[in-house]
Amino acid sequence: SFMVLSAGATARSTPVPSTMAAFVQRSAIAQKFESDAPTPYLGSLRALYTGLPASCEVLVRVEFSSVNPSDRSPTVASSTLPHVLGSDMFGTVVAVEPNCTRLKVGDRVWGDIGANTETLAGAKKTKELGGYGQYAVALETQLGIVPPSMSDSVAGSLPKVALTSYKALVWYAGAKNDSLWKRAPKVLVLGGSGGTGTIGIQLAKAFGAGEVITTTSADNFDYCKGVGADRLIDYKTQNWWDPTVVADDSVDVVYDCVGQDGTGDRAMTKLKAGGYYVTITGQLASHVKTGVKQAMFINSDTNLDNFELLDALSGLATAGHLEMPRLKSYTLDEVPAAFAESATGQVVGKLVINVTSAK
Fold first, then answer.
1. Rounded to whole angstroms, how far apart are CA atoms 86 and 335?
2. DSSP string covering 237-306, please?
């Protein structure tokens, strides 16, 4: 069976089935694969959420998504249940609202639709999501054009970790505006082999870092060197905060992707005055060193209108500064197994979900 998408959109779209395969949050505690979830429609975001930017809606046939730690048990308001999970998405535009100006049917697009938003009913905090469905609706302002050189699976793996690390370095560590980055700064990336760390290393180099130090296990040294790390610390045998491992007052930027207790205060001893400490895990220092800036942020708070960042990332990818060299693929019905692997905290690179494939 096929559905009419919405008034004014049908002339610009291909037929879309009324149901789809998806991995769905059914209740506060139940998640399951469904072969016949209802397909979303243009206008469905405005029917569910308030406070959205002025943007048209776009229907995408999703091909790849991925697993990020925040995808495993996101905040989903009860009024939006059942709800398709998944933040990252890569796919092809199949329909747009008439007022769309940037995107058109047939465009290859990517985005992170795991945005924090509020329900129209009762203004409850909730996450948008939808990447683990064979079709997803997104705001045009949330989607970028995928660089032609990028493979489909890589495009599905990157948006959340790339947006996160871009914001960490550009918004919170001065990468585009502090002259520090013109002086080949020394950057310490904690957790270099995970998704955000993999991108953090590459972007630090692209933005001008002279030396990138990272923590990982010895098994992953070659992987981290491959994305640009200059110096590797095996966290199983050495502590980065030991002055004999990383000298005090020797680092310009610390980017924390791990979240170990005490990280903020330990980072302060390593940082020079004028430096930056950025964490995506909430491990802030209790005492901030004079002249050092510290920040913690939540990527999902700023993902309703971010196409300009996706376009910047596309440019970096085209220039050879953005790749995801290790992917492990699961099918849509295997999301629980992918979640279990993610929960080990030992994933190297990214776990991707092939949304077109389900048993």
1. 10
2. T--TTSTTTS-TT-EEEEEESS--TTHHHHHHHHEEEEEEEEESS----SSPPTT-EEEE--GGGG-SS-
* Strand 135-139 relative to strand 57-67, pairing: antiparallel
Report which of 182, 178, 258, 276 is spatially closest to residue 214, judged by C-alpha positions. 258
Residue 11: burial class (beta carbons within 10 Å; 0-12, 13-18, 19+)? exposed
Dist. CA 341–CA 352, nearest whole Å = 12
Grouping H, G, I as helix, E, B as strand and the rest as coil, residue 37 is strand
DSSP 70-113: GGSS----GGG-SEE--SEEEEEEEEE-TT--S--TT-EEEEE-
Element (H, E) at 60: strand 57-67
Distance, in Å, from the CA atom of 226 to the CA atom of 193, rounded to the nearest integer, reads 10
d(CA 169, CA 45): 31
What is the token pair recorded at 207?
């933005």
Segment 190-237, tens digit of pLDDT = 999 999 999 999 999 999 999 999 999 999 999 999 999 999 999 999
Q: Quick one: pLDDT band at residue 339, thresholds 50, 70, 90?
A: very high
CA distance 172 to 280: 11
The pTM score is: 0.96
